[in-house]
Amino acid sequence: MIFKQVGDGRPYPEHGLSNREWAQIPPRQVRLDTLITTKAVLDLHSLLAKDSTFYGDLFPHVVQWRGELYLEDGLHRALRSALHQRSVLHARVLELPSDS
Fold this sequence. Notes:
By secondary structure, the protein is of the alpha/beta class. The protein has a domain at 1-8 and 32-42 and 61-100. It has helices at residues 19-23, 44-48, 75-83, and strands at 5-6, 27-31, 35-37, 61-65, 68-73, 88-95. The chain has a 6-stranded mixed β-sheet with strand order 1-3-5-4-6-2. The chain is globular and about 35 Å long.
């Protein structure tokens, strides 16, 4: 299995971070098999596009909440890593307090 779980939606509270604020979080390595997706459906055009990160962040966005890692943005990049036989990827990880 590529991911820990395939989810559909964000179970964690809204964080309200802008793209500029995400960019301030330094990327770190995350194992694909520890991630829970927040999308159950992927557009193959996004996965196969050569310029898929041209207008966005180069690193996926992950939210850590209540001990779990949720892949909020960058599902196509994570799958592309898996297709290249990689078990880790670099992502920006926002840690939310568990009491939220």
